[in-house]
Design a protein that fits this description.
Blueprint (H helix, E strand, L loop, with lengths): L3 H6 L1 H10 L6 H13 L1
């Protein structure tokens, strides 16, 4: 599981990691959007 704090603080690093593993880096944006909705 990825720490949400890491996703918030370093989204580009998480996107690069996703892409390097052959996964969709767009999931990072979805996670950030869901986190923003939850926090507001």
């Amino acid at each position: 599981m990825i720490d949400i704090k890491l996703v918030r603080d370093e989204p580009d690093r998480v996107r690069a990691s996703q892409q390097a593993r052959g996964e969709d880096p767009g999931i990072v944006d979805a996670i950030l959007a869901a986190d923003e909705r939850r926090r507001s």
